[in-house]
Design brief:
This protein has about 475 residues and is an alpha/beta fold. It has a single domain, classed as Amidase signature (AS) domain (Amidase signature (AS) enzymes, Alpha-Beta Complex). It has 15 helices and eleven strands. Strands 1-3-2-4-6-5-10-11-9-7-8 form an eleven-stranded mixed sheet, with helices on both faces. A hairpin with a 5-residue loop joins strand 10 and strand 11. The chain is globular. The mean pLDDT is about 95.
């Protein structure tokens, strides 16, 4: 057997050419999972039998002279809030115990059609509510680079699976930074596409106006490959943009010469660790050296993004999670009356953070408080959109930190929800605006843990964003390079 390449592009090329079989590639990755996932806990479920059947089918297509697709034989991990037909989908919550969806999410259908081999369902903060993957009903996921530290969240399992080499690519969902923040903490690439570019059909909703599915990978090119496979219009999602998937791979070598890139002043000061801020400035210098014009830009309303988000997202969650009532699917705790059964089921089925956010959202939507809280948060959201519009009138892309710090230790922030929420200050504004953003690994912090820098683009600006990401990737400091 030939050595299995590390990137999705290389694996797909080797499988399509017959140099490697999809089954060989799969067995190599299953062995890695067997060796280390007991320590990492990236997966809620490893789909070994289903994956072997998919790999055999890919190999049969190759043997018949057919092209299985752009992801031929590439192992892929799926966040466990993406519906998979006949396979448990838990959202890392007890309340969905025993539920097996009767359909596949659109993104699952699309990666399968492209020849990918889904290897398992990854751990997450329950219902995607968290920034550390400490809120899972199935125990925390650990950062593969230091198992005493968190991988970030909520897509911590998907980020850790890629960082540990369990799969070269994975899918997560991003509501307030849940792809980009764990990507930064685990030292991988993570992308939140433009809202509506990727179908949300089959994604179990947290906050429907904010959620977006996107890729994790070890390289910028692999994220481009995966995003091309999953993007594009879907009539089953009413918020889906009626446009074809973007061509991203062909733009990666175009460079940044002449591009205007702005450092967001509100996201470079208070709350951003000095070592992280230093890496962002180093990234700006690298882009300037490659021909970009670097300046500073203000997005004033971004300072209120966190406050607005933690009213809007819980409000939508309180509505979306009302469907978990013990009647239709998942856990049921019997009681004398329907109301008591509903209450008992939710008490037993939801974890503390989910209950906290449901209560926050219900309060914000209640009579007498709607205008004072939820209504004002929507106005702030509009102000953020307008401020970004002004910024993009002068700049093609924006640059910030992804996470204000490197990965923190388990338990450091669980006692103080506000300190946990502050992990999302750099990522939330983009979700509120509906714009694309991505995290690119850029060296390490003073503790030797990965630092991610974040590129932001206007709606449908993915092509330009990926061009700059490829430049940063090419000149990124090594993780073990001495920080100064």
């Amino acid at each position: 057997m030939s050595a299995v390449p590390s990137t999705a592009l290389e694996i797909a090329a080797a499988v399509r050419s017959g140099q490697l079989s999809a089954l060989e590639v799969l067995n190599d990755h299953l062995a890695r999972i067997d060796a280390r996932d007991g320590e990492i806990n990236a997966f809620n479920l490893v789909m070994a039998d289903e994956a072997r059947a998919a790999a055999v089918a890919v190999d049969a297509q190759v043997a018949a002279g057919e092209d299985p697709g752009s992801l031929a034989g590439v192992p892929l991990a799926l966040k466990d809030n993406l519906c998979t037909r006949g396979i448990p989908t838990t959202c890392s919550s007890r309340i969905l115990e025993g539920w097996r969806p009767p359909y596949d999410a659109t993104v699952v259908q699309r990666v399968n059609a492209a020849g990918a081999v889904s290897i398992g369902k990854t751990n997450l903060d329950e219902f995607a509510m968290g920034s550390s993957t400490e809120n899972s009903a199935f125990g925390p996921t650990r950062n593969p680079r230091d198992t005493g530290r968190v991988p970030g969240g909520s897509s911590g399992g998907s980020a850790a699976a890629v960082a540990a080499g369990f799969a070269p690519i994975s899918l997560g969902s991003d509501t307030g930074g849940s792809i980009r923040q764990p990507a930064a903490l685990c030292g991988v690439v993570g992308v939140k596409p433009t809202y509506g570019m990727v179908s949300r059909y089959g994604l179990i909703a947290f906050a429907s106006s904010l959620d977006q599915i996107g890729p994790f990978s070890t390289t910028v090119a692999d994220s481009a490959l995966l995003l091309e496979a999953i993007a594009g219009h879907d009539s089953r999602d009413s918020t889906s943009i009626d446009a074809p998937a973007p061509s991203l791979l062909e733009s990666l070598g175009q460079g940044v010469d002449g591009l205007r890139i702005g450092l967001v002043t509100e996201l470079m000061g208070e709350g951003i660790a000095p070592d992280v801020a230093a890496r962002v400035r180093q990234a700006a210098d690298a882009l300037a050296a490659a021909g970009a014009q670097i300046g500073e830009v203000s997005v004033p309303a971004a300072a209120y993004g966190l406050s607005a988000y933690y009213l809007i997202a819980p409000a939508e969650a309180s509505s979306n999670l009302a469907r978990y009532d013990g009647v239709r699917y998942g856990m049921r705790v019997d009681a004398p009356t329907t109301a008591e059964m509903n209450a008992a089921t939710r008490t037993a089925g939801f974890g503390d953070e989910v209950k906290r956010r449901i209560m926050l959202g219900t309060y914000a939507l209640s009579a007498g408080y709607y205008d004072a809280y939820y209504g004002k948060a929507l106005k702030v959201r509009t102000l953020i959109m307008r401020d970004f519009e002004k910024a993009y009138a002068d700049f093609d892309l924006l640059l910030t930190a992804t996470s204000p710090t490197t990965a923190f230790k388990f338990g450091d922030k669980t006692a103080d929800p506000l300190s946990m929420y502050l992990n999302d200050i750099c990522t939330i504004p983009t979700n509120l605006a509906g714009h694309p953003a991505m995290s690119v690994p850029f060296g390490g912090g003073s503790d030797g843990m990965p630092v991610g820098v974040q590129l932001l683009a206007p709606a449908l600006g993915e092509s330009t964003m990926f061009r700059a990401a490829a430049v940063l990737e090419a000149v990124a400091p090594a993780l073990d390079e001495v920080w100064s």
